[in-house]
Write a structure and sequence with these properties.
This protein has 259 residues and is mainly alpha-helical. It is built from 9 helices and no strands. 68% of the residues lie in helices and 0% in strands. The longest helix is centred in the N-terminal third of the chain and has 27 residues. It starts with a helix and ends with a helix. 34% of the residues are buried.
Length: 259
Amino acid sequence: MVFLFLSILGAAVGSFLGALTWRWPRNKSIFDGRSRCPHCNHVIHWYDNIPIFSYIILKGRCRDCKKPIPRRDLFIEVGTALLFPFVFLLMPRISMNVGWLLDLGSFAALFVVLAMAFFAVSVFIVDLEHQYIPDFLVFGLLVLVIGLFFITSNPLIFSYLAAGFGASVFLLLLNLLTLGRGMGLGDVKLAIALGAILGFPLSVVFMFTSFILGSVLGLALMAFGRAKLHQKIAFGPFLIVGFALTALYGFEILAFWGF
């Protein structure tokens, strides 16, 4: 029953994420009316806007103009519908690496991690599609984290924040050294929030893992002719994946390194 509820919740959140990540980069408010078909501009009826099922029933086409509905919406909805119950299954492991979550209690901790997943997936999508990270997502996540630190009376709050700023300063130096070509300021801001969640030493694991992932994929893309040497590649998705891996396996990675 829990898995079903979280799947439905995830699909609903995915529907909202699809609209948010589509509208925001185009300077359209998420509260600016109901969704419309990108081809004929007809308002999408509520019964054609049910996550996942409407896409299947309509066979991936608009009811009015019969043109294809962007598949990205379906992928996001299915992805979050799978992600939310998956997070529930992995909560014991996440709590082992992000220990301050235990102070919230298991129920509250789950929804805090789901909220973090909301921000993380949003950043992943927008940066992947548009190569920029909206400030409201980064600072929204940071405000959430700082608020939780105060709620839990975390005695190491400044240590965690210092870890976040340390990760951020490292990326800022890369930004300055490469004149913005090697690292964007959006990545610099994102590192503050993600590093603060993990604290030290896991923030170091997070940064190292993100760069390894970015290097491996970058080399693979160049090897297959999908990218050039000086071509800019969005780094936000690598930060998100590196953060997720660290939240799941951070201390195991440290042990593997001999620390």
